[in-house]
Specification:
45% of the residues are buried. The chain folds into 2 domains: 151 residues, Dna Ligase, domain 1 (2-Layer Sandwich), CATH 3.30.1490.20; 124 residues, D-amino Acid Aminotransferase, Chain A, domain 1. The longest helix is centred in the first third of the chain and has 18 residues. Helix 4 crosses helix 5. The chain is of the alpha+beta class. The chain has 9 helices and 13 strands. It has a 6-stranded antiparallel β-sheet.
Length: 287
Amino acid sequence: MEIVFLDHAWSRDVTKVGGKGAGLGRLAGGFAVPPAFNLTVDAFNRWGDCRHNSPDPPDDMMQAVAAAYATLGTLCDTDDPDVAVRSSAVDEDGSDNSFAGQHDTFLNVKGEDAVARAIVRCWSSLDGDVAMDYRRQSGLAVDNAVMAVVVQQMVPADIAGVAFSANPISGDLGQVVINSSWGLGESIVSGTVTPDMYTIKKSDTILVSAQIANKAKMTISKGDGTEEVTVPRIMRKQPSMSDEQALDVARLTASLEKAEGHPVDIEWAFFKDKLYLLQCRPITTLG
């Protein structure tokens, strides 16, 4: 089975849809996860070799992706949804290894042809030097590596960031630590902005500290992609979210830790005051 939506049993199986896809599949029923479908390892095994030969996906793959994209559009109530196309290697986002930044992600992709080509580009990143070096250093398979891909409705975030259900610096299991900035979370993930940092006591959801940074850059959706722009001067030293929003993110993070049974690292976004869960993975290292 090459393509499955998040409500399918395969979307909870890391061997079928990779760590990222399986994490979303497990949590979609109970949390505000944007609609998505997964290209499974079966899709990679059937069509993945095209990444070596041509940027144009095979015709039968184009047809399958077009059908899934149309269904996603129905779920999103639009004919041509903007989507994020994210790699999801089978040994990615596990408790021992995290491939954060090693494989490609494409944001704000629109149209069935563009989505299919972005999927092939994700598959191609499996062969990149950085990803291969990481595999060798981690003792993971190099020759027979496979990849799934997640295609998920794009959230045009007003505010976004990451959060940890344990303090990643001190190792304190009783604290939630949140990094937050304007626009899409890509500026935080890629390290081009110093984000605001909120620390919350987990047991009673009390704000311990809020360190507000000078946020000079932000990533926004533009055209068929994204663009990093300068933050208006008046906004740079303003808190990117209210204390109550920070507490909402902390509650979400703590709930996800309870649901998953271990400390988690999440990506989240606010759009029009609604909080969305974009990714959830185990914390692989603690201070």
